[in-house]
Amino acid sequence: MSIDFMFYSKDNAPTPSRDLLKSVENKFEWVPNVLKQIALSPVALAATLQLMESLEKTSLSLQEQWICLLTVAYQNSSPYCVAANSTIARMMQVPLDIIQGLRGGDPLQDPRYEALRSLIREMIEHRGGVSEKALKQFFQAGFSKEQFFEVVIAIALETIASFTARALATPTDEQYRENSWAPVASSQ
Fold first, then answer.
1. 87 touches 179 (CB < 8 A)
2. Radius of gyration of the chain from its Cα atoms, rounded to whole angstroms
3. By C-alpha distance, which of 92, 88, 99, 102 is closest to 172?
């Protein structure tokens, strides 16, 4: 049995989602497939866009924001989101070696970025749980307690996108295909 979820546009989405989709299109010049699907629920779309806006207002650097999002996408094994975040991170001038490391789940050379990646990895693997060691590493790398909560915003945002994309097998947008990705098969 197949359950299809439509891809909505500003013309056929539920009325409250139409203006939200218009704002996405105005900002990015197009609407990614995952947002077209989320648009079925105006509340979910509004929440997703609010988290995007909130993340942009954090004290995390642009690179740190994309490290967060790409780490969550990788940890959640979302081909759609890894491709999307890789593409956008590159556009945001995140160095290619960092993007490639995150796409492979590899430790990062920069101690600050690695502390961020490790914290997120642990939080996702342990459903919010995190060791004292990972927290100390995060704070010793120069992050603040406020930034801990900003990281949680990034995790929430990317979890919505990656869970939606995985559950609905969202096809990768043409704009992201050059960075297509598939999770490595686990030996477990």
1. yes
2. 17
3. 88
Give the separation between CA 156 and CA 154, rounded to whole angstroms. Answer: 5
> How many CA atoms within 13 Å lie on the side-chain side of 170?
30
CATH code for the structural domain at 15-172:
1.20.1290.10
d(CA 18, CA 71): 31
Read off the pLDDT band of 176 (50, 70, 90). Answer: very high
Annotated domain spans of the chain: 15-172
Neighbours of 186 (CB within 10 A): 6
Query: What's the pTM value of the predicted model, to 2 decimals?
Result: 0.93
* DSSP assignment of 11-61: TTS-HHHHHHHHHHHHHHSS--HHHHHHTTSHHHHHHHHHHHHHHHTSSS-
Q: Long-range contacts for 5-10 (Cβ within 8 Å, ≥24 apart)?
A: 5/37, 5/40, 5/168, 6/37, 6/40, 7/33, 7/36, 7/37, 8/36, 8/37, 8/39, 8/40, 9/36
Give me the count of residues in the chain: 188
Residue 12, number of CB atoms within 10 A of its CB: 12
The conformation of residue 183, written as its DSSP 8-state character, comes to P
Kindly report the backbone phi and psi dihedral angles of residue 117, in degrees, each rounded to the nearest multiple of 5, phi listed first: -60, -45
Closest CA to 80 of 4, 181, 167: 181
Q: Residue 64: is its pLDDT beyond 50?
A: yes
Q: What value does the mean pLDDT take over residues 99-121?
A: 96
